[in-house]
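> example.struct
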């Protein structure tokens, strides 16, 4: 005979497999037994309760951790997650849990935190080896052999108003054109699922100095063109520090120069701008510079 008192605990198994979250059996009766020396319990004798270490703790896995396990770029994984979210929301009625982390440069960037079912759904796009790694990782999380990856939270939560004010100040400081300003707004709106226009009306066809000079008959090279622009006060040179501490210089249209073109965020280097020129005004600009 094996007596089991109310403090004795057993993990609950389903068909030989431990459930996603361990539970314990608490017996209401003072003692229960059977002839095989195994606990004999039924629905009237037991209640299921989470183990003390599990109370209030919900296991999650971040998209950063999933990207690391899959050997994928986190930005690429975020793109896949967003494309899969609509179907998940349609079936379950809820969106994924959007969060933020601080990268090595101090920038707050978006990430997601997934429960077991959500992560398995995302992993359906992974290869067999990655899904195996993910399954093992979850087993370690649930048995306490591993802890979730936590990332440094933001010290101060910025409001939507704060972010849009920042865009306004950047636009004013760098004299960005509407397309570049829209691009900054889209970076704020996309993680929140907010709609933004796909385009803005242009004040004219924009061309780089190189393309415009070629179309105008190569009256001079870009270096001489930029020198003439700077001499007339239409163009200025700004600088910024790169991630490696090097000084990067770039050209920028002044308020006076905005008559002839626009400043646009450089797609190859988003932290700096590049001047673009109105096609229908370029010949007049060359005359203004005494280059035609």
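> example.seq
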């Amino acid at each position: 005979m094996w007596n089991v008192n109310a403090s004795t605990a057993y993990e609950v198994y389903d068909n030989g497999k431990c459930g996603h979250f361990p539970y314990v059996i608490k017996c209401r009766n003072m003692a229960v037994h059977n002839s095989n020396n195994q606990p004999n319990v039924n629905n009237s004798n037991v209640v299921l309760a989470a183990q003390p270490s599990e109370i209030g703790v919900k296991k999650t896995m971040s998209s950063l951790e999933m990207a690391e396990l899959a050997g994928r770029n986190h930005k690429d994984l975020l793109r896949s997650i967003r494309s899969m979210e609509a179907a998940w929301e349609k079936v379950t009625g809820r969106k994924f849990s959007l969060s933020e982390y601080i990268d090595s440069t101090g920038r707050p960037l978006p990430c997601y935190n997934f429960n077991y079912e959500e992560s398995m759904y995302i992993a359906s796009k992974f290869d067999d080896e990655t899904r195996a790694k993910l399954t093992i990782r979850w087993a370690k999380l649930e048995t306490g052999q591993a802890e979730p990856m936590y990332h440094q939270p933001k010290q101060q939560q910025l409001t939507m108003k704060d972010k849009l004010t920042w865009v306004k100040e950047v636009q004013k400081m760098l004299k960005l054109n509407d397309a570049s300003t829209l691009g900054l707004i889209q970076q704020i709106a996309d993680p929140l699922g907010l709609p933004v226009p796909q385009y803005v009306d242009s004040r004219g066809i924009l061309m780089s100095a190189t393309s415009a000079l070629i179309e105008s008959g190569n009256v001079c090279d870009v270096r001489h063109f930029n020198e003439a622009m700077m001499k007339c006060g239409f163009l200025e040179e700004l600088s910024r520090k790169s991630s490696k501490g090097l000084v990067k210089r770039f050209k920028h249209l002044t308020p006076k120069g905005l008559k002839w073109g626009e400043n646009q965020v450089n797609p190859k280097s988003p932290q700096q701008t590049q001047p673009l020129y109105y096609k229908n005004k370029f010949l007049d600009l060359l005359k203004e510079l005494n280059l035609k």
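> remarks
The chain has four domains: 13-54, 61-142, 160-192, 206-288.
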